[in-house]
Amino acid sequence: MWLERTLDDSAGRRIVIPESFLTADAILCLLTHVFSHLQIHPEKIEKNLTEHIDELALENILMHAVKKGKDRQEIHEKLREDPKNAKELGLSEEEIQSCKRVEIGRAKEQVHAFLKNQIFPFLDECKELKKPFFEIKT
Q: Angle at which helices 58-67 and 72-81 pack, to 10 degrees?
């Protein structure tokens, strides 16, 4: 504001503003490229969940054991050493399996409603627009 109508900041502005727009354009082109080639592999997701379910369920197992009167510090130490120690905590197999169930609440319904009410109508409106052409130079 103090430099308004002076030449003190004009060189910086001539360089910074155009380069900022070029940077923003490059970022948008890269993001468009990344998202257009994004792939989801359900089998890999399932494999990772299966491999790491013990770690994911630690908090639920810990809380369940504490509700049954177990010492929180002792249980935490046993589970920290090896997540598979849940059987040694005096919990039944059924209790352990119930702790391992992934609870997602209403997330599935909320995502479907959002897609149906917001995303799909927007995409239908955009069908007439041309896809932007860009090229990633490496």
A: 150
